[in-house]
């Protein structure tokens, strides 16, 4: 049975596994250093690699007696140029450059772009970004299968460089055939979260939800300007959201990304959906044992904004100091959450409860816990909905996500402030109370003589029916 490995913080840490962190001993060290959720990046590695890491994480659950979330990150469609006759060319600002569908190598005047869906979305005046934005083209004329452009920012281009179309919605599914095969593989393994790349519109999330069919949480990665335009709809359809700042920073001016990050976090907090901040958080630690002061401030800002989790990518996947990266991120979060200003900020962004019994009970639990200086809020939940509502309130005390469902316990590892604990299925409300108090004391969240605030839905096990609050003494 899962127990709680106590973290002295509310925000969670996601670490990407890769060549630098593939051994079981290193994964164990990452668990102890503070990782709550592990990311399997399906843009790299083989299915055997991912299965081996998946199995190791599940063994860590048994070793440490706590649930860890596993997030599979789908690659998504990659829009790329074709090849060049000489392998590479240099484009100069002001020069004309033609893109086409023809199956012939390119040169300094033209290049193949084997994506008819891009040409269908183009209009004169739109910009195309090549090679992560290093080269910028502006469309002057376009039609079926071609686009005449002018080079705005020149540079070197080589075979198969990526293409971004920031101002258009490209009619392409976020799920390629590779993604569909990977998704089926991951769901059969038992991943807890599926990260969907290249989300442009709410329909993309709906498509993924239909395929996942409730077997995992669907996390929408926001990396396209078109997704930001329909942010509220996408958040409503998603189980969680990731601010994928790397791609956002390619398709949007860098000065726009910080305010968009704050907007996304605020929207998710209001909706009660977990939100993850990702990309280059401690990027210098790929090669250095300590971060820059700017990177430490970047992580701190995400926590002050109220993010549920912050993510490490290359830092732990291929970096030379993966344990140090997790350790410093853990310390930054703890330091921020100890700051009195942090509590003021959390309270200031708290939404008014909706006129439902579930929202009313969750809001009351936070207020009662703070008024009585309770040790913790215990949220008994089957689907995780009760714990999510409690987390949206951002209470000053830990939230124990008490559930008999192991899949729910693992998903809750991503959620702010929730310490997931798997319990036995209680047969009566009284037994649920006693079991909650026993586990809180056993796991070090409460001492004899302290009070706990407990919320649940009655009848027990009814999804989404948070309708009861109880104050109980730990004996």
Task: Summarize the topology.
Blueprint: E1 12-17, H1 24-33, E2 37-41, H2 47-64, E3 69-73, E4 88-91, E5 96-100, E6 110-112, H3 116-121, E7 127-130, E8 135-143, E9 146-153, E10 155-158, E11 163-164, H4 177-189, E12 193-196, H5 202-212, E13 217-222, H6 225-229, H7 231-237, E14 240-244, H8 245-251, H9 257-271, E15 275-278, H10 293-305, E16 309-312, H11 314-317, H12 322-338, H13 340-348, H14 357-371, E17 376-380, H15 385-392, E18 399-403, H16 406-411, E19 418-422, H17 429-442, E20 451-456, E21 468-473
Parallel strand pairs: 1-2, 1-16, 2-3, 3-12, 5-6, 12-13, 13-14, 14-15, 15-16, 17-18, 17-20, 18-19
Antiparallel strand pairs: 4-10, 5-9, 7-8, 7-11, 8-9, 20-21
Helix pairs in contact: 1-2, 1-12, 7-9, 10-12
Keywords:
TIM Barrel, alpha/beta, M1 Pyruvate Kinase, Domain 3, 3 domains, elongated, 475 residues, Pyruvate Kinase, Chain: A, domain 1, single chain
Could you explain the architecture of this structure?
The model has no long low-confidence stretch (mean pLDDT 93). Strands 1-2-3-12-13-14-15-16 form an 8-stranded parallel β-barrel, surrounded by 6 helices. Strands 6-5-9-8-7-11 form a 6-stranded mixed beta sheet, with no helix packed on it. Strands 19-18-17-20-21 form a 5-stranded mixed beta sheet, sandwiched between helices. Helices cover 37% and strands 22% of the residues. The protein is elongated, with a radius of gyration of 24 Å. A hairpin with a 2-residue loop joins strand 8 (135-143) and strand 9. It folds into 3 domains: 12-76 and 173-339, Alpha-Beta Barrel (TIM Barrel), CATH 3.20.20; 88-164, PK beta-barrel domain-like (M1 Pyruvate Kinase, Domain 3); 357-473, Pyruvate kinase, C-terminal domain (Pyruvate Kinase, Chain: A, domain 1), CATH 3.40.1380. The protein has 475 residues and is of the alpha/beta class.
